[in-house]
Amino acid sequence: MNIFRLAGDMTHLASVLVLLLKIHTIKSCAGVSLRTQELYAIVFATRYLDIFTSFVSVYNTFMKLVFLGSSFSIVWYMRYHKAVHRTYDREQDTFRHWFLVLPCLVLALLIHEKFTFLEVLWTFSLYLEAVAILPQLVLLQRTRNIDNLTGQYIFLLGGYRGLYILNWIYRYFTEPHFVHWITWIAGLVQTLLYADFFYYYFLRFIGGRGVE
Amino acid sequence: WSSSQSHDEL
């Protein structure tokens, strides 16, 4: 564990806590894409299948349970909790996110590190996470203005993988044979997709007004 | 490819 990875995990944890805070306290999911949340639930479900078979550390297992629990409860809230569901913007959240799942699965079957069931699904979760934010970014474009909590959520979610990139650079130089091209490229693509969001987000900070 | 040890990252 290094400071970059810890900062990345804490940033990721903060993003799900901000979203849960927004949904649970003000009972609103305005501006949040249910489709992105569904994709993230699939990402964690397919990435953490090894939670029962390989124990890394208490921290690792604990965080996996937190991410699994939070992603599925956010989907449940947005789908079935009547007060929250009422604030869900169904008409605007129309990105065909299921069209992202199949290409990621095919790509994982073609490009992976080991051809085993767990490893292919793990690789699938990497590819899917790289594009999972697309429905949210499209929804952002359509709803123009978003509240601060949603803006913070997206900022933290984009930032965590950026910190992971620093972690991979650090590990590459400090650990022999630490080479994971698939993880690195997927993580880079994922972070680059946030580029224009980060641009407008920092403009907001400079301009001191809402995220336009 | 390096032999990927069990994934120790989240």
Describe the structure.
- The complex is a heterodimer of chains A (212) and B (10).
- Chain A has ten helices and no strands.
- With 212 residues, chain A is mainly α.
- Chain B contains no helices and no strands.
- Chain B is elongated, with a radius of gyration of 7 Å.
- The A-B interface holds A 5, 9, 12, 50, 54, 56, 60, 63-64, 67, 113-114, 119, 122, 164, 167, 177-181, 183 and B 1-2, 4, 6-10.
Key traits:
heterodimer; A: 212 residues; mainly alpha; 73% helix; globular; B: 10 residues; little secondary structure
Task: Describe what is shown at a glance.
The complex is a heterodimer of chains A (212) and B (10). Chain A has 212 residues and is an all-alpha fold.
Total DSSP E strands of chain B: 0
Largest interface: A-B, 22 and 8 residues
Q: How many DSSP-defined strands of chain A?
A: 0
**Strand content of the residues of chain A, in percent?**
under 5%
Mean pLDDT across all amino acids of chain B: 66
Tell me the number of helical segments of chain A per DSSP (H or I, 4 or more residues long): 10
How would you summarize the topology of this molecule?
The complex is a heterodimer of chains A (212) and B (10).
Chain A: H1 3-25, H2 34-47, H3 58-80, H4 82-86, H5 98-110, H6 117-131, H7 134-143, H8 148-174, H9 181-192, H10 195-207
Helix pairs in contact in A: 1-3, 1-8, 2-3, 2-6, 5-6, 6-9, 8-9
Chain B: no helix or strand
